[in-house]
Amino acid sequence: MNRLLVVDFETTGSHPRQGDSIIQIGAVAIDDGQITECFSTLIHPGQDIPPFITQLTGITNEMVADAPTLEEVFPTFLRLLDGRAFVAHNASFDLQFLQEALLSQGYYAFDGYVLDTVELSRLLLPMQNSYRLGELASELAIEHDNPHQADSDALATAQLFLHLLDILQQLPLVTIQRLQMLVSSFRSDIATLLRQMEMEKLAELPQLGDEPARQASPLWDIYRQLALKKREEKLKASFQRPQTERSYGKAFSEQLEEMLNEKGQMHASMSGYQRREAQEAMMHAVFDAMQEGTHLLVEAGTGTGKSLAYLLPGIIWAYQNQQQLVVSTNTIQLQEQLFHKEIATLQQTLPFAFTASTLKGRGNYLCLRKFEMALEEPVEGSNQEMRLAKGQLLTWLTQTETGDVEELSLPPSGQLFWQQVKSDTSSCLNRACPWFSRCYYFQAKDRAKEADVLIVNHALFISDLQAENRILPPYEVAILDEAHHLEDAATQHLGKQLTTTQVMFLLDRASVEEGGAIARFAEEMQSWQPSVQEELNTVLLECKKLSASLRDKAQQWTQFLYAWASERAEETTDAGRETVRYRVASFTGKQEKIRKVTKKLIDAMTDFASRLEQMLKLVPVPQEEKPPFLIRSLQTDLFGLVKEWQNVMELLHFFLQEQDPNYVYWMEVESRTARKQVHLSAALLDVADSLAEPLFSQKRSLIMTSATLTVKNSFSYVMSRFGLDKLPAERVRTLSLPSPFHYEEQGLLLIPSDFPAPGKENDQTYLEAIIQGCVDVVVASKGRTLILFTSHSMLRLVYQAMKERLAGEPEPYTLFGHGIDSNNRSKLVSLFRSMERSVLLGTSSFWEGVDIQGEWLSSLVIIKLPFTPPNHPVYQGRAEALKADGKNAFMSLALPQAVILFKQGVGRLIRHHLDRGVVVVFDTRVVESRYGRSFLQSLPPFQVETGSWPTLRERIEPFLRMQSLPDS
């Protein structure tokens, strides 16, 4: 495979057998790893090019009017292809057009090697967010000037292939050999490429007896036939070990002034650093709260610089008191940003050394022992996505230092495979494991224990409370950023979840078929202890009999559950699921069947589990002779499986047999896919007690901060939801710091008074007003618009209608819809920023955490006030509890939640002191309802204008045209 031709076709559509034709060919020849020739031409297709193809490619009917026909061009192209492997990005698409063209021109079909750079990229770049050519080119700094033009696409694909070839050449031989065993069933000829690479690497190996002997690789740690990337040395703790010199003498204010003045280290470390009054006020408040042992709630407006405002005083206090500082965030993105950006800055700024580390939940880390065992399973019978996932992990081991699944981009089957190979307590050999010294989880735990600053996420922070502080090292002070999410994080992680897919996957893992863990365990046991063979075969036979019937019962249970839930579910989230709240007591009469099939499933699982336990007891208690490692490893995995099995049985009982009055229960079904799966969830009605007692009562000082903690300038809502109102008043302080931005001049808030009241999606008058209003804003803003929705179905309707209407504009607009163009928020934001006249439509995850500074974002549209749907199960349950206590659920719960999310949404617009923008709210309740003022009073001081929409929309373009403020 030293001679290749990288090909890209632009076509009139996707179906060559239905008349679609090639309109452009791009081809790049690669010989011995070098680009040797490029070829490209437009083709006259003999038919009109559809408008959407012209919009995508930029190729018009006029451009191909005088172009040669395929018949005229093909001989030149085929001379290039002769004797070469065919390479393309998503090769099956281009290959079908090639074969159809060859057939139509009277040539033989192409029978050479085919390589697909999508498959190769997924295998060799497992940490990429996307495998689209444009995004790969952007990530890998490959020049790609004209996406969807065949010449540019072919050249970019050629550069990508050479990059992938370089990765392959650098991989250790053992990884190449392991990969080769997994890719035999792939659609393209990757196996042949890997075989060639293996031969080249074998030829480079020194002969036996040659001197010098094989050197240890500086890059790889090769152990038990797996190659791992060598990791950095462990941290060296500084705060928690006695030190002779400490700056106890200086007051915090004095230390702060030395660092922040014009000659201080902060100016030297951070280019463009400017002192901010609000930031320094927060620094003092944080240090004082830690020093005096109180909890502190800080609302810090956008632009305050709150990350530095809590990290700097927190680290100084921890240093002076020889304690570890724990910082918790809601999102992985902020966790990573703090670690790689703010912490790195402070390590250069502070006058003493300190170490930092991150820690995530145990299930985020790969168990190397389990992965080794999974690779030993027979390849035959496993689907291609599962093999791909194993291959991705093999490559990833040569790239990762953390073993953290967040780095990976796994296919759906790969995410199920992760459940099989992730680290967990119940199937851990601890120090008896041969991988213990290399274990990603235990290394992360060690780093966490030794770090002076430990950065975690809210999920792990709450899990630690649940585990009675057995996960995190002991701590006295902690900072919770994005603290407005604390109640939601506690609701999720103190709740319970189960899916029908999870149950079926567990049954798959307990397969008694040859090659599965149970059969392998029985086989190894018989070989090691022949005396137990008869008993083992008896148990194995019973397991096989139970297994088939068990699967039938599980499928029947899934069908009953899905039928019941899908008939009653309604859309309450934007995740593409429909939801129905239920009570176990309501499964009577015709619905009694659900409880009955669940009971039968639990009974069958109990029988099967007892056989598994019986099998495991056949391993003799080690006296003089320990069981071989493979038996101990399989035994541990089966113990873990039994533990999971028991946990699922308990959850089945919890969800569908008896109801706990402290929880609210609901089911979700997928509404936009063919998958008939059901998600069962339960949430605590009240999490305040679960936070107040183990957290706020026990810890010295918790700093909780966010840009949105108040409603109408009061902290009372979050205090009641966190349980802080149960503490003595002197134990809790609050501080509200305004943003340093000049909102009166930088921002304009428009609220049309003549819009229809918010209606349902089938209300044509309302929908028409929303669509036209969005188009008006986009045209006036020349794109550069973010539109926020509370419903995914509404987003889809508006997206399609806007696309049609904007197609008639003189200048082209590009729309990006969440869940339509991609589900990856970061990717959509990146695309939005990279294209002129672009529009981004987003649902719940876009209301916060999106940071688009400067001219890329000029206008923000809010379609509806973000009230939680009244039929959302958790809201319903909590509203009922409030009503029972004589409280108004709307004023106590729905309104404050909506105000906080509304503030977050509006906060997407002005992100920098030079930003300028317009917010448009198409929900007239803001000005017409009595509670509307709660929203407006919670916002920064924008210019606010109301009136008819034809008048208001004329304000957008002139306001955005005005020059930005001078630097302030």
Automatic annotation (TrEMBL):
NCBIfam families, A to Z? dinG_rel (TIGR01407), dnaq (TIGR00573), PRK08074.1 (NF005981)
> Which residues are the signal sequence here?
none
Per its record, how is this protein called by name?
3'-5' exonuclease DinG
* Name of the encoding gene: dinG_2
**Keyword Nucleotide-binding, does the record have it?**
yes
Helicase ATP-binding domain boundaries: 265-531
Entry keywords, A to Z: 4Fe-4S, ATP-binding, DNA damage, DNA repair, DNA-binding, Exonuclease, Helicase, Hydrolase, Iron, Iron-sulfur, Isomerase, Metal-binding, Nuclease, Nucleotide-binding
Lineage, top ranks: Bacteria, Bacillati, Bacillota, Bacilli, Bacillales
Its family?
Belongs to the helicase family. DinG subfamily. Type 2 sub-subfamily.
